[in-house]
Amino acid sequence: MPPLEVLKDLFFFERGYLSANHLAWRSERPVLIDTGYLTRFEETLGLLRGLGLDPARLQLIVSTHCHCDHIGGNRRLQELSGCEVALHPLGLRYQENRDDTATWWRYYGQQAEFFDCARGLVHGDAVAVGPHEFRVIHTPGHASDGLALYHAGAKLLISSDALWEADMAVVTELVEGVDALHLWLEALERLEGLDVRLVLPGHGRPFTCFHEALERARARLRRYLADRREVGRDQLRRILVYTLLMRGPLGPGELMALLQRTPWFPETIAHYFGGGQEERFRETVEALLAKGVLVREDGRLATTVKP
Fold first, then answer.
1. Domain limit, last residue, from 174, 200, 225
2. What is the rounded average pLDDT of the residues 13-24?
3. DSSP secondary structure, 71-118, as one string
4. How many domains in the chain?
5. Residue whose C-alpha is closest to residue 199's, from 75, 19, 23
6. In terms of C-beta density within 10 A (0-12 exposed, 13-18 middle, 19 or more buried), how is residue 90 classed?
7. Which end of the chain, N or C, is less surrounded by CB atoms within 10 Å?
8. pLDDT (tens digit, 9 = 90+) per residue, 242-299?
């Protein structure tokens, strides 16, 4: 979809699942909210320039969390413009300490670059995106440093990965901790108290069914709490697909060997299922093929998910 003007001169860009959605305030000194995935940086630049923005004059990036699909352009945009980055203090600490496990990058074998941080944003803070003031809401669960942004006047919620319309972001308990599901439920409770007209998620289209989306997310989290193996199954499916988004089509043996070299794949299977890597790999691939999320192309596995 073309950029959507959600407030005066503030535009929402819907991307795919490799690059998160992001927003840009159009001005002589632009402000961005999130910056996409590193390997799609030239595409991100093209989208900004298509809106009439000069990336070299960028003033500020607000990062909703430090996952690779949200911060991929941060370092390179800083090099172009000297801009500042504002994010949750936990994310700031991860960047300062060069912690590529807490950010998930090394854990999942993702491409990303560390960047410099200027300002920590805590729950209840106000952050200005040009003339538009947003309230900061801490939303851990998916990401310990997760933030949502709320504009009270427009009843507009930038939910990032805390809330999607009909699906949910991945849960990584072995990085985020055993309380991740409970923290996510608490974050949804904080969001529920808002008067929301429009939600701008980290992935997917904007939506208005705010309370319905909240209930769907809560129901999913409760199912996970009732059977933790569901967390493991979901993680295997989502990260397998994301790996193909990052790497492109791979033969089954090639994909299996790649996954086995990452920390997450053997650890997830051992933690949730007690072992059986080849069996779980086959089950995951077959389930995704049956749903049409994966297809076979010339003996290789590819995903139908929009990158």
1. 225
2. 97
3. HTTHHHHHHHH--EEEE-HHHHHHHHTT-TTTTSHHHHT---------
4. 2
5. 23
6. buried
7. N
8. 999 999 999 999 999 999 999 999 999 999 999 999 999 999 999 999 999 999 999 9
Query: Tokens at residue 67, please?
Result: 């996952």
Q: What is the pLDDT of residue 96?
A: 96
Confidence of residue 1 (pLDDT cuts 50, 70, 90): confident
Q: Domain holding 291: CATH number?
A: 1.10.10
Contacts 24+ apart (CB under 8 A), 1-6: 1/205, 3/47, 3/50, 3/51, 4/206, 6/154, 6/156, 6/198, 6/200, 6/206
Domain that holds residue 211: 4-225
What letter does residue 124 receive in the DSSP assignment?
Answer: T
Instruction: Say what percent of the chain tops pLDDT 90.
Output: 99
Same domain, 173 and 295: no
Cβ-contact 20, 200 below 8 angstroms: no
Q: Are 237 and 284 in contact (CB under 8 A)?
A: yes
Only one residue has tokens 């995106």, namely: 129
In the block, which residue shows the tokens 């961005």?
32
